[in-house]
Specification:
The complex is a heterodimer of chains A (261) and B (407). With 261 residues, chain A is an alpha/beta fold. Chain A is built from eight helices and eleven strands. Chain A has a domain of 181 residues: Rossmann fold (3-Layer(aba) Sandwich). Chain A is globular, with a radius of gyration of 18 Å. Chain B has 407 residues and is an alpha+beta fold. Chain B has two domains: 181 residues, no CATH class; 128 residues, no CATH class. Helix content of chain B is 52%, strand content 22%. In chain B, the strands form two sheets. In chain B, strands 1, 2, 4, 5, 6, 7, 8, 9, 10, 11, 12, 15 and 16 form a 13-stranded mixed β-sheet that branches. In chain B, strand 1 and strand 2 form a beta hairpin. The longest helix of chain B is centred in the last third of the chain and has 44 residues. Chain B starts with a helix and ends with a helix. The model of chain B has no long low-confidence stretch (mean pLDDT 85). The interface between A and B is medium-sized, with 29 and 24 residues. The complex binds adenosine-5'-triphosphate and magnesium ion. The site of magnesium ion has 4 residues of chain A, from helix 1.
Chain lengths: 261, 407
Amino acid sequence: MVAHDTGPGAAAVTAESVRRTYHLAEPVHAVDGVSLSLGEGSFTAVMGPSGSGKSTLMNLVGCLDTPDEGRLEVGGRSVGELSDTERARLRGTEIGFVFQTFNLMPRLTAIENVRLPMVFHDGVGADRQERARSLLERVGLGDRLEHEPSELSGGQRQRVALARALANEPTLVLADEPTGNLDTETEAEIMELLVDLNEAGATILLVTHERAVAEYADHVVHLLDGEIASLEHLSGARDVTAREKATEGAGNRRSTGEGEA
Amino acid sequence: MNLRESLRISWRSIRAHKLRSALTTLGVIIGIAAVITFMVLGGGFSEDVVGDIEAEQEPAMTVQTQTTPEDGFGVMLVETPIYTESDVDALEQREGVEYVAPQGSLDVVQAESDGEQLTGVVDAQATTADRFEHATFVDGGPFDGADEAVVNEQAGQAFEENVSAGDELELTFEDGETTSVTVAGVAESEIGEQTPPQVFVPADEHYTTTVETPDGDEERAYPTLQIGAEGLDDVDPVQETAVDYLEDDSHAAELKADDDEIAVQTVEDAIEQFDDLVGQLTVFIGAVAGIALVVGSIGIANIMIVSVTERTREIGVMKAVGATKRDIMQLFLVESVVLGAIGAVVGVAAGLGFGYLGVWLLGWPMVYPLEWVAIAVAVGIGVGVVSGLYPAWRGARVDPIEALRHE
Ligand SMILES: Nc1ncnc2c1ncn2[C@@H]1O[C@H](COP(=O)(O)OP(=O)(O)OP(=O)(O)O)[C@@H](O)[C@H]1O
Ligand SMILES: [Mg+2]
């Protein structure tokens, strides 16, 4: 079993032989023995063909699902050992999840959708409305605050979903194809936003089918049939930052990781 | 999650399904409106009958025979003549008793005054002048001779040409005999507006009903007595003495039917008994209306379960962004409580409205059943909690992954 280390410092997420099996007519191992470590402040892309287990892996890391086998730690806490409520707290406070299918609340306006995670998290102060507004402005939707999801375009919904993911200042941002519905220009804006977040210290895990999007990350995990096929380290694909200079010092450049675990 | 936020989200979802929410609360509205309407009607009826009786105490009490119907509420008066002349005499000897006035109906079928005949309306009672010891006369006074009579206000006004002291009345008995009396006075009636028109004539001359006493004699006997005490302080002891005597030593005790009971009541006792009866009846009808509430709460529960299923995906979203089981429970409970509370408020308003209309049509006074309004609102909220519990629990149990996949 080989741990795929994608980050320099302490690990934000550690997976050891994590397996998630769906029991249908015959068992489907959607995630099949994945070992992976995401360093704090790392930016990782996950690529792989449809059905390779990307979304399943995201759900596990996002504490929505629990592994059937293996050990998964998020923020130093073992997900399998947490109670429902503790996992809900973790989702609300540490994790920001952008879903492949947006998952906005249909009857709530854009700004109410963005406020939602703050509502369930009593820690954040009274200026929820103000904070929700500034997040929407940040994703370019300052003029769509009172629109319900049905009154927004696909790309706009995607951006509301991203703004909502950032509501509680998560340390771990999980994005399942966040640019799948966007034109290249908006895609670039969203990716820049993720890069900004990453530079501000957040750990980012991103699923994408597009090589160009994956290039924003420092590392790419290639999934195939629920297993890690390869691990890629990138750098220089985007503006070189201070942090990247540090990792460059370690001498990683487009090296391919070991195969399946 | 704080309450204001959950109210806000719940209100959103109630408003999003206006028609459905309205239909859901309808059951609660109807139930509570029915309860409140009956309470208003019951209160109005009781207020109408006893409300205008003067609270002024008089040292008098009535002796009557009562029976409890086999099914149904309250008591019925029995009109059998069981209080004999000897009983009257014996009671008069007791300490503190000022007078005992017997009273019994005469089978008068028609009364005529100044050529105007009233058939079947006027109730004729034979009694003694003592009966009017505490009565208030609007005109004249008690009768003083065989051919004199006292009428109550209702009887006085029953004729187009109001009857007053000095007028002649001709009474026709069932057997065709007639007798002429002079009205000596017009008396106010003690018991409210509901009293029928009555004519009182002296018993000695007009009352003929007799029974065979346990001693074997024939004696006149009456279905009702009125006992006057010497003063207000004597009322309680006299009442006690009278009960003791009548139940144990009197002819009445032997003459009465086994199931019958001798009741010695002051006006206040009678009002209390009546109030009890109306109260029981109102609560009974209210309980029937309460069944509508049960149906209403099943309605809320039903809709909430549908709503939980329908919103499975939303529950998944909320859980995904950090909602705990408790948060989800709270959301659904708040929603059903809001529905119940809306139902209660609208129901109370509708009930008061219908009640008001009812008492207005019946000419009764409006009574606001405040404690029932409070109970109704509490019940509405309770219905919300109870009917929301199970759906809320189901909602809270939803697995976020499953829910997010739910279409
Ligand atoms: N609830 C489920 N029950 C049974 N099988 C499932 C379930 N969820 C996922 N799977 C299976 O697990 C595998 C991985 O699914 P997953 O959604 O993770 O794929 P993915 O890599 O995200 O694909 P895509 O790129 O199309 O989104 C698929 O073969 C899928 O059929
Ligand atoms: Mg997927």
